[in-house]
Amino acid sequence: MDTASYRLAERSGARDINSVRQSMMHHPVAFAEYGFPVRVECHEDLRAYLDVMHESRFDAMMTEMDGLHDDELDELVDGLVRYCQFCLATFGTREIVLPLSGMMMQYAAAKKLKGIPERARVLEIGSGSGLISFFVSQDKAIEQYHQIECAEAFYLLQTHINRYVYGHGFLDHAHASVGAPKTAGIGLEELSAIRPDILGSGVYEKEIRIEYTARPRVEQFPWWRLERVLENQYDVVMSNANLTEFSPEAMRYYSALIAKVLKPTGVFFAQCTGGGSNPIQTALKDLMAARIVPFMFGGYIDQPASPTRAASRKSLAVQNVMMMPIANPLLATVAPHNGGLPLVHTQDAMTRAVFGLDRPAGVKRTREEVTERVKERLHARAGRPAASLAAE
Q1: Residue 284 and residue 255: Cα distance in Å, rounded?
Q2: How far apart are CA 294 and CA 351, in angstroms?
Q3: Topology given in CATH for the domain delimited by 35-174+211-388
Q4: Which alpha helices (H) appear in 262-323, and where do they start and end?
Q5: How do beta strands 292-303 and 312-325 pair?
Q6: What was the pLDDT predicted at 203?
Q7: Which is nearest to 217 in space by CA: 156, 154, 167?
Q8: Exposed (0-12), middle (13-18) or buried (19+): which is 78, by Cβ within 10 Å?
Q9: 119 C-beta neighbours (distance < 10 Å), count
Q10: Which domain of life is it from (predicted)?
Q11: Cis before residue 329, ω within 30 degrees of 0?
């Protein structure tokens, strides 16, 4: 989808909604507050949005994960190589901006998702640059991954990434034709039965059309088609790095949406609460008003001493949040929330899996080491020696 097509679909959707109040609720107010441009004029403008999230967090996340094992380094490097190949195919350039911090953050989020046993259907609200698709696409346990995005530039960038990563397994709901009845035509087939020479003698040939109905693995929803999201139930809903960036109306709207679509046994997860001016407590209160209650909240995890291990503290690169519908039976297995923060149930198996509390320490990798691995693997896949291209 290009910019003109997106705006045409957006105007059509806004006319159908026919309410300025409802439309404005989905405008990204935090971006406007900071003067961050969310409109682009052409396809090439999207390159500037590839490395604008999570700056300078590579080392902090490497510390949180306590280093990477060799197989984890391979996963990260493979994701970065897929990203490089996407850039080469999409923007046709030899110079690739490598968003190491952004990709490291998304790799960590994808690994945390793997700690949630039930994750067949995942919804993410506000996917930003869309980099997580390079990792989520490799998780076979995620059968369907849905995204909601209201910022034009990020929606278009996510579209390009998803189409590259998932191919025909991607469905873009911003396309005006998706699910819509045919609304135009001139009846050429019918009239050609009377006058076969309308387009000239021997020119007209009846079209051959094949109906193909697929169950896409990833679907992307613009703000004007969110009624389609309400038709689904999800094991996991994510909203990474944006909870403090919603307007009050949008936060109330999305808290209701989460309550509607999250399974009673589901999990709401956020890695990073965002960089907006709204207090995170406001977002938590809105979610709690929709009967979604905190299960984990904090920027560090204290691990009490055990017979085999001394007490320790695991520092998180950013604040993390896990919440659940009040009916989730897992809530009954832990001590009740008394309002104190941070809130972490360190004996809970899912919490331990999400945050890698039982994972042996890995090796601290540097930005330079990861970059060299990416260059070597990228060039090897292209059948060329690493020295054949300049190392930028």
Answers
A1: 9
A2: 13
A3: Rossmann fold (3.40.50)
A4: 280-289
A5: antiparallel
A6: 66
A7: 167
A8: middle
A9: 21
A10: Bacteria
A11: no
CB-CB contact of 147 with 158 (8 Å): yes
Q: Encoding tokens for residue 275?
A: 């960089």
The beta-carbon contacts of 362-366 under 8 Å, at least 24 apart in sequence, are 362/65, 362/66, 362/67, 362/68, 362/69, 362/72, 363/67, 363/68, 363/69, 363/73, 364/62, 364/63, 364/67, 365/62, 365/67, 365/68, 365/73
Q: Select from 110, 165, 170 the least CA-distant residue to 141.
A: 110
Burial (CB < 10 A; 0-12, 13-18, 19+), residue 348, is middle
**Per-residue pLDDT at 262:** 98
Residues 6+ apart with CB under 8 A from 300: 313, 314, 315, 316, 342
Which residue in the block uniquely carries the two structure tokens 């997580």? 132
Q: What residue spans of 18-69 are helical by DSSP H?
A: 20-24, 29-34, 58-64
**What integer pLDDT is reported at residue 384 of this predicted model?**
58
The token pair that represents 362 in the structure block: 């890995």
Backbone torsions φ then ψ of 269, nearest 5 degrees: -135, 140
Which has the closest alpha carbon to 160: 45, 247, 252? Answer: 45
CB contact set of 134 (below 8 Å; sequence gap of 6+): 79, 80, 82, 83, 86, 103, 106, 161, 165
User: The whole model's pTM is what?
Assistant: 0.90
Residues in the chain with pLDDT values less than 50: 386-392
Distance (Å, whole) CA 222 – CA 216: 17
* Distance (Å, whole) CA 105 – CA 270: 12
